[in-house]
């Protein structure tokens, strides 16, 4: 009977592998846990980077003063807790304007030619933003009880028109020295902070510069501000 060759299978030949000690196993688990945490942290930072950059751009760097057409307001003023009324006479909390960029004009209900020019300019500025226009609301704040003329009532179909007590409004939106509130257009950020004032009695040439300001603001906030409230 021939001897089995060394290359043949040895069914009873078992390989014994050493098992890690409890302390070694604990160390391996700890290393795996730390590695997993660092991986999750890295992924979170990668995802958050665009948002952090946009916040930094808007709140820290912000549009440079020398490049702005509009005047930056410092300190910014938060929308007051005031009860306004809409064109139907229903009460509206002014703080409900939060959640959207606002382009605001102020005047009495009679709305003279300068007021009408502002309303037209607001509409044109918003439309000129193209696909970004839904991130900017057109707001007309009326400071008296004068009824809107039939020609102006259609504005309420496309803009937010609210009557606000002038004394309360003056605590929020303030004109430049020597001017009246109705001579400016105002920009309010989605948190409700009045943060920019365009020059008084702005013409259409100024409106083109105002558009560039608005575009920069919308770009700086693109990662954290969405259209609609």
TrEMBL record:
Q: What is this protein called?
A: Transmembrane protein
Domain of life of the organism in this record?
A: Bacteria
From start to end residue, where is composition biased (Polar residues)?
A: 1-10
Cite the entry's keywords alphabetically.
Membrane, Transmembrane, Transmembrane helix
Question: Which stretches of sequence are listed as region Disordered?
Answer: 1-31
Tell me which SUPFAM superfamilies the record gives. Thioredoxin-like (SSF52833)
Record-annotated membrane-spanning stretches: 38-61
Output the InterPro entries linked to this UniProt entry.
Answer: Thioredoxin-like_sf (IPR036249)
């Amino acid at each position: 009977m021939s001897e089995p060759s060394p290359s043949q299978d040895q069914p009873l030949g078992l390989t014994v592998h050493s098992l890690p000690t409890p302390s070694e196993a604990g160390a391996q688990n700890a290393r795996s846990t730390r590695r997993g945490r660092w991986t999750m942290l890295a992924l979170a930072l990668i995802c958050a980077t665009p948002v952090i950059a946009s916040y930094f751009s808007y709140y820290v760097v912000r549009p440079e003063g020398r490049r702005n057409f509009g005047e930056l307001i410092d300190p910014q003023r938060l929308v007051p807790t005031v009860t306004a009324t809409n064109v139907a006479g229903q009460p509206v909390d002014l703080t409900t304007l939060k959640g959207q960029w606002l382009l605001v004009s102020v005047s009495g209900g009679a709305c003279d030619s300068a007021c009408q020019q502002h309303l037209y300019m607001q509409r044109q500025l918003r439309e000129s933003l193209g696909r970004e226009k839904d991130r900017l609301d057109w707001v007309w704040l009326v400071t008296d009880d004068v009824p809107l003329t039939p020609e102006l009532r259609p504005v309420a179909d496309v803009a937010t028109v609210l009557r606000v007590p002038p004394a309360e409004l003056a605590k929020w939106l303030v004109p430049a020295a020597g001017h009246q509130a109705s001579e400016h257009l105002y920009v309010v950020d989605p948190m409700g902070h009045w943060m920019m004032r365009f020059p008084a009695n702005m013409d259409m040439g100024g409106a083109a510069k105002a558009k560039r300001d608005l575009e920069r603001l919308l770009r700086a906030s693109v990662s954290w501000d969405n259209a609609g409230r």
